[in-house]
Design a protein that fits this description.
The chain is globular and about 60 Å long. It folds into 2 domains: about 250 residues, no CATH class; about 70 residues, no CATH class. It has 8 helices and 26 strands. The protein starts with a strand and ends with a strand. By secondary structure, it is an alpha+beta fold.
Length: about 350
């Protein structure tokens, strides 16, 4: 089955057929689905088969049925998320959806790389969220009270456990997939950003989502002051070279009063960060760098919301499909990254 947007009626039919799926869409449309073998999370931005689009009226489907020998759907909170790898199948993979800014999101972002057996099988997925612009638009359009609006439209990052039909803003949901013995899964990431060769190295004294003090080129500075001095814009972000892979950290907010900077995912005190080079055309870079054996071997992929909002991918097509998340998961939480899962024959 093609990985693409489908109507509510089509997805309902897939669920009744017993398909094992990861679904993404607005809260309102996901809440209309029947119980079944699926998990879901809120986002209304997608790279469809023809172009990048935003819609609340359709659901993006990642169908895992054809590769799954067995499956298990599990809810996680900040206390038991550390068991996620241990609870996966001996040979398989896990798709995880985290609601942004929740305690379980923060726990996983800060500590997942130290979880027992985390690298035994791929753990991929996306961070569910909602844009403030969507909240304002929906609230004003409905003319409703907040409680009414929260029922009718997405006001909070939400995940769905299709097995029970329940939704959560404070828990993560995962689907563990078992593969047959002749197949193996691997997680791949693509980050097209590069380090600005003129940028000075930035080191932070603590691991946290929010930072103020830092050391830049051996001198203590305030990160908010530094970003403003270099002319920070929303298309700027910090990057680090993590064992040969470029890892991005998107700036969420600069507080003008406290002079603190909040990032969309955690900044670690054992990494050296740099400014990234500005990218004028993400589409061209993806076309040049995105390679995989075959789309038939990619049952799941997702990419960063920044690519849609700041990378000008609205109404433009890159050669892969998936949800634009508020963070991407490949063993831990990433920003400005395309994550895809490939299945290899042994």
């Amino acid at each position: 089955m093609k990985r693409q947007l489908y109507t509510l009626n089509e997805v309902t039919k897939f669920i009744k057929e017993g398909r094992k799926m990861v679904l993404s869409g607005g809260e309102k449309i996901l809440s209309k689905l029947p119980k079944g073998n699926w998990i879901g999370g809120t986002s209304t931005f997608f790279m469809n088969t023809d172009k990048g689009v935003s819609t609340r009226n359709m659901i993006f489907v990642d169908d895992l049925t054809e590769v799954a020998e067995d499956f298990n759907i599990v809810l996680y909170d900040e206390k038991n998320i550390k068991k996620i790898a241990i609870e996966s199948f001996y040979n398989g993979f896990t798709v995880l959806i985290l609601p942004i800014d929740s305690e379980v999101f923060e726990e996983f972002s800060l500590h997942s790389l130290s979880y027992d057996e985390i690298f035994n099988n791929p753990v991929v997925g996306f961070v569910a969220g909602v844009l403030e612009e969507e909240v304002v638009e929906d609230y004003d359009k409905q003319g409703a009270t907040q409680s009414e609006a929260s029922y009718n439209e997405t006001l909070y990052p939400t995940v769905f456990d299709g097995k029970t039909g329940k939704r959560y803003t404070d828990k993560a949901v995962a689907i563990h997939i078992e593969l047959p013995d002749n197949k193996v899964a691997r997680a791949e990431i693509l980050n097209v950003e590069t380090i600005d060769k003129n940028s000075k190295g930035i080191v932070f004294p603590k691991t946290s989502f929010t930072q103020s003090e830092c050391v830049i080129n051996g001198e203590k500075q305030n990160i908010a002051d530094f970003l403003e001095d270099v002319g920070y814009q929303t298309n700027y972000n910090l990057v680090a070279d993590y064992n040969g892979s470029i890892v991005s950290r998107d700036v969420k907010e600069i507080n003008p009063v406290t002079r603190e900077v909040t990032f969309y995912t955690a900044i670690f005190n054992d990494e050296v960060y740099y400014l990234a080079n500005k990218i004028d055309d993400y589409k061209e870079l993806f076309e040049r760098n995105l390679t995989y054996t075959s789309k038939e071997n990619v049952p799941y992929s997702c990419m960063c919301m920044s690519y849609y909002m700041r990378g000008d991918l609205k109404n433009r097509k890159i050669n892969i499909e998936g949800v634009f998340g508020f963070g991407e998961i490949a063993f831990h939480v990433l920003n400005r990254t395309l994550v895809f899962l490939e299945i290899d024959e042994l």
